[in-house]
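F.,

This is the one I mentioned.
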C-alpha cells in the first residue's frame, strides 16, 4: 500500500494474510492506518477471523492500526491449539513479534481475555492498553463451568435451528433475541475469503483449556499496571458477570462498564454505546 492509497477501514473487506513463525503459519487480517502501536484482537472460544463484530472493529480501525488473528490450530492458521491458555499466550507472543511489533494495545473477548491476561503477566512490557470484555481471572469462581453451559446452549440452538451464539451471548427475552439475530447478521456481512470453521478437536481442546484456567491458582494481576477497560453484560451465563467485578478489583485503576439486561455478548448488544467508548479508551 502506498501513501496515496486509501486507508482500509472496513473489516468485511480486509484481506487475509499469513506470517510464518516458530515453525507455524498464522492467519491474520489488518486494517486501519498503519504506523504507531497496533490494536491486536484476541477472539473467543470456537471463534475464527469471521467472528468479530465489524461495528466494533471498524470503529477502532477508523483511527488505529487493527490486527486480528487465528490462534494456532484454528481457522486458516496451521498447527494445533495448545492444551493450556498460557501456551496460547506464548503462541500469540510469537505471532506479534513475528510481525515486528514491540508494543501493542489489546482488545479481547471471553477466552481471548483469558489469553490476553496470561500474555500481559508473562510480558508486561509488551502491552500498553488493555480491553477485557466478557471474561474473568484465572481461578475465578465457576469459570470451569463454561463447558457445561456451552454444550447446553449448543443443544438448544440445534433444536431451534439457530446460531449457538444467539443463546450463549444474549438473553432469551425479546430484546436479547433481537440483539442476537442482529449480531449474527453482522457477522455475515463478509461474503468473500471467509475463514475456515474451527474443527471439533480444536473446539474441545479450547474448552478443556478454559476448564484448566478456571481450576488453576489465580494469577497475580497486580502486575497489570496498564490502563485497563473491563466490560460485560449484567447477566453473563458463560463467564459470570461477577468475574468482571473480580477483575476490576484485582487490576488497580481499571475501569468497569456493565450493561443492563445483557448477557455474555453485552458489548455486541450495546455496540452503539460501547464502540466509541472502546475507541476513545484505546486512542488515549
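My design for it:
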Amino acid at each position: 500500500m502506498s501513501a496515496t492509497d486509501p486507508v482500509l477501514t472496513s473489516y468485511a473487506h480486509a484481506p487475509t494474510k499469513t506470517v510464518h513463525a516458530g515453525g507455524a503459519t498464522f492467519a491474520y487480517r489488518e486494517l486501519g492506518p498503519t504506523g504507531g502501536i497496533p490494536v491486536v484482537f484476541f477472539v473467543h472460544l470456537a471463534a475464527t477471523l469471521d467472528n468479530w463484530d465489524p461495528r466494533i472493529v471498524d470503529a477502532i480501525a477508523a483511527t488505529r492500526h487493527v490486527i486480528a488473528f487465528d490462534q494456532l490450530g484454528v481457522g486458516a492458521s496451521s498447527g494445533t491449539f495448545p492444551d493450556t491458555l498460557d501456551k496460547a499466550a506464548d503462541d500469540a507472543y510469537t505471532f506479534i513479534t513475528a510481525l515486528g511489533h514491540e508494543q501493542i494495545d489489546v482488545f479481547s473477548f471471553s477466552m481471548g481475555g483469558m489469553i490476553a491476561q496470561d500474555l500481559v503477566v508473562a510480558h508486561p512490557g509488551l502491552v500498553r492498553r488493555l480491553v477485557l470484555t466478557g471474561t474473568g481471572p484465572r481461578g475465578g469462581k465457576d469459570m470451569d463451568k463454561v463447558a457445561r453451559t456451552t454444550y447446553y446452549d449448543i443443544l438448544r440452538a440445534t433444536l431451534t435451528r439457530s446460531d449457538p451464539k444467539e443463546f450463549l451471548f444474549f438473553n432469551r427475552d425479546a430484546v436479547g433475541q433481537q440483539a442476537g439475530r442482529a449480531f449474527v447478521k453482522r457477522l455475515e456481512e463478509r461474503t468473500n475469503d471467509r475463514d475456515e470453521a474451527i474443527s471439533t478437536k480444536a473446539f474441545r481442546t479450547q474448552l478443556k483449556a478454559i476448564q484448566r484456567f478456571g481450576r488453576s491458582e489465580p494469577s497475580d494481576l497486580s502486575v497489570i499496571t496498564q490502563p485497563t477497560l473491563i466490560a460485560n453484560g449484567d447477566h453473563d451465563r458463560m463467564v459470570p458477570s461477577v468475574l468482571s467485578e473480580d477483575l476490576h478489583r484485582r487490576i488497580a485503576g481499571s475501569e468497569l462498564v456493565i450493561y443492563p439486561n445483557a448477557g455474555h455478548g453485552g458489548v455486541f448488544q450495546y455496540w452503539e454505546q460501547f464502540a466509541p467508548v472502546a475507541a476513545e479508551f484505546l486512542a488515549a
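The mean pLDDT is 96.

Talk soon.
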